[in-house]
Amino acid sequence: MDIAARVHNHNWKIDPIVRSLIDTDFYKLLMCQSIYRNKPETSVAFSLINRTKSVRLADLIDEGELREQLDHVRSLSLSRGESTWLRGNMFYGKRQMFRPDFMEWFEGLRLPAYHLEKRDGQYELTFEGQWPEVMLWEIPALAVLMELRSRAVLKGMGKFELQVLYARATTRLWEKIQRLRQLERLKIADFGTRRRHGFLWQDWCVQAMQEGLGDKFTGTSNCKIAMRRDIEAIGTNAHELPMVYAALAQDDAELAEAPYRVLADWHEEHDGNLRIILPDTYGTEGFLKRAPDWLASWTGIRIDSGDPGQAAEAAIRWWQERGEDPRRKLVIFSDGLDVEKIEELYHQFLGRVKVSFGWGTNLTNDFRGLVPNDALAPFSLVCKAVSADGRPTVKLSDNPSKAMGPADEIARYKRVFGVGDQVASEVLV
Amino acid sequence: MDIAARVHNHNWKIDPIVRSLIDTDFYKLLMCQSIYRNKPETSVAFSLINRTKSVRLADLIDEGELREQLDHVRSLSLSRGESTWLRGNMFYGKRQMFRPDFMEWFEGLRLPAYHLEKRDGQYELTFEGQWPEVMLWEIPALAVLMELRSRAVLKGMGKFELQVLYARATTRLWEKIQRLRQLERLKIADFGTRRRHGFLWQDWCVQAMQEGLGDKFTGTSNCKIAMRRDIEAIGTNAHELPMVYAALAQDDAELAEAPYRVLADWHEEHDGNLRIILPDTYGTEGFLKRAPDWLASWTGIRIDSGDPGQAAEAAIRWWQERGEDPRRKLVIFSDGLDVEKIEELYHQFLGRVKVSFGWGTNLTNDFRGLVPNDALAPFSLVCKAVSADGRPTVKLSDNPSKAMGPADEIARYKRVFGVGDQVASEVLV
Predict the structure, then answer these.
(1) What are the boundaries of each domain within chain A?
(2) Touching check for A212 and chain B: CB below 8 Å?
(3) What is the pLDDT of residues B96-110, one digit of tens each?
(4) Which residues form the Nicotinate phosphoribosyltransferase N-terminal domain (chains A, B) (predicted)?
(5) Looking at beta carbons, which residues of chain A come within 8 Å of B164?
(6) Which of A237, A379, B342, B370 has its CA 20 to 30 A from that of B296?
(7) Is the minimum CB–CB distance between B179 and chain A shorter than 8 Å?
């Protein structure tokens, strides 16, 4: 592992954090293609939001360095090998997942301008423009900020202190993997790109999962790493689709329909394991209650907020009510996982549904307790669509701590989607 | 650290363990020069002795691989850069430590033949010929066997298991160094070549000591690493000198004089920090009692067997009896050290003498408890002069467990040197 040496070198020359346009989550590309077809002209704004105010990013990270890294991302374009891989690779058992017209557009793409300001110890970082372009900023923006924060903390450490830091993190991850391999029918993927410690570390984590878990490790959400390590790229869709569709709704009736409109567009484009419902944007309970019948035939569901066990139980009941056999359905857990939670959910749902895990921050960025003041502890940084064609977006989710949007709009959405009281839980990552 | 990757590769291509004639202890070269001047024609036999019979080296290590490695050592000769370094470098504050006639001889040297047989699960490995040549086999022979044993144990491990193994060993060493740096006036050197886990690991340990201990780290006994890392090469003399001189003695009177004859030759050649008494070959107590007065003026003493605290107290009393100020004398501890022992001796002798430590096996080969069956636990392998001009050598030391030689000769030596009962202690390394 030469990571420590590399990190040691970060501080005396520029070392680009994001070096490829496909160093991003696979679902961003799937969604981008869908948006490119269905909503290419929509204007959106994406904005960085640090939900952990105590981590004062603007005090930690030099603005000049941040600009250099973001400018570097803007200089990237798809390489020939990357384009070949996207065009020729089999994703979810399907060839030519990406249509020629989309690929041509993507090959010509450079990421649009960014707007950066400091306020109250935080960076205000926003991206505005056409949805298909702007949305591709999300992952590189997060990766750049996460890794600059890591570098800022590690800057004062000697080469051997760094080696020992990575030795400890390595040992910790390996011990987690040793525990997980006890779970005989485990299926788990890396979802850790956005909050990773750094690219090299994520790449190492993926290799450790490959060696330690074998077939239990189903792939990575990161396209660059999937290509590099010749493994499956994993992912389907995310909250930005219902959030933007909802913001574009002309009235309450259209708003209530927006989440299903998203999935109807998706249904038309994808089948099999790509038909995964993400039900929590405006409350899982109401979403399932009002869902059209055709949705019950989808392959599975992804649980990304609230109490995951309760949400999965609700999904099981819903499938049963619609005459579906839950044992043939896939439940993907992807919110705030670590080994204990994975073990608990695995045992709770083993044999009742097909279970899969998307493991994020605690896979690719668990440096808790390894440096003074716990300065590498995970924190909750997101980059979200905040407006579409000039209207604010809203997210409710199953955890009010994750809600976002203007207060009056939140109230309106709660009314339209029939969301009552929710249980708040702390958002760590 | 790419050690894990390297170890992973050991098993599919030949990877020479010893790659340089100066990948050896500095004191071997100092002694070699002395022997080359004073006893060049003496015939000696050196032999490998594994004092830990439970480690069955011949079962672990393939004979073909061992021969390949030993043959490779025989193919080595001094490189131009190595010769330049030996001729030009300053050792112990002195330039041209190595005389031109010795350097010319050394530049032309290839190591002599070896004789290898298997017996009772062990290798019988012997070297015969002229003393200055044969004696240079000691360190490479030990390094080859130690590292082949490490490789044999690691052979079945995956790349990530290896990474985690080294991560744990790294963390352990760093924690030791963190403890040692608390000792404000510590002086410590690496003496771990002969029983190292492997060359790369020793080189890493030395760099860790450099970064973690700064000035407290005084250097390494390994010439290649001293050259590579631009630090001090450390060492003076060893038991082989009195052992061979004693074996060559014609009668008991000459035998009793032999240890002092060695030091008289050394006195003529060296001064300052190279005048270090090694008193235990035939019992420290008697050695000091019968020592000539001029020896009390020497710079210090090295404690290499028995109870180190007691031996150092005896040395202090001896200096005081001879009118010397112990506070100006150097005591070097070099037997079976680990952090606890170093701390204990440091506090016991701080301010009473100048204290220095030569840290060996537990610096460069502490993998205890890190693999199943503790298969990397340290063990006691030595390579010693067993005869000189056809007569057997004898070593008594201050620990009867370290005694060697034919029983009748041991009895004679005990009589001549007035060695009574000794306390046995387990020899771990």
Answers:
(1) 3-417
(2) yes
(3) 999 999 999 999 999
(4) 22-145
(5) 170-171, 174
(6) B342
(7) no
